[in-house]
């Protein structure tokens, strides 16, 4: 085989193999967070008479970001795993996921900016979690 043919064949094989290395991620809800590792200690029960011992669980903080989706640029928001979107903290019923903002105002609309312009859409044009929450 000539050098040119070998280089061409090698380039083709490498180029095609790059397509199979990374699989696209499905559009589903993110995986649950991984619990912290390390030793855990159980609270010791109180020995005071007359006081029942009830273990208290600390409130689990809500995640501020998603493992799968980037947060909106320049806006205060938090990730809502049930809805599968970021909820904008300073605007009512405005959501964000994958470079698109979604707004509920007696119907759905979407935009590439939180200030609009807004384009009307139906329930099929929004992430499924939003459609289930607000329904039409």
UniProtKB/TrEMBL annotation:
Residue spans of biased composition, Pro residues class: 27-38
Record field: compositional bias (Low complexity): 39-51
Signal sequence, start to end: 1-18
Superkingdom per UniProt: Bacteria
Keywords, alphabetical: Signal
UniProt region (Disordered), positions on chain: 23-76, 109-136
Listed name of the protein: Lipoprotein
Native species: Pseudomonas kielensis
């Amino acid at each position: 085989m000539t050098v040119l043919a070998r280089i061409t064949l090698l380039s083709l094989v490498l180029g095609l193999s790059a397509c199979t290395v990374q699989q696209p991620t499905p559009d589903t809800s993110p995986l649950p967070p991984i619990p912290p590792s390390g030793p855990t200690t159980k609270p010791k029960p109180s020995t005071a008479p007359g006081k029942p011992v009830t273990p208290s669980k600390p409130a689990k903080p809500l995640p501020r970001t998603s493992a799968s989706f980037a947060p909106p640029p320049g806006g205060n928001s938090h990730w809502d795993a049930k809805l599968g979107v970021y909820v904008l903290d300073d605007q009512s019923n405005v959501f964000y996921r994958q470079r698109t903002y979604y707004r509920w105002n007696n119907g759905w609309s979407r935009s590439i900016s939180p200030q609009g312009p807004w384009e009307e859409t139906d329930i099929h044009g929004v992430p499924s979690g939003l459609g289930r929450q607000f329904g039409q």
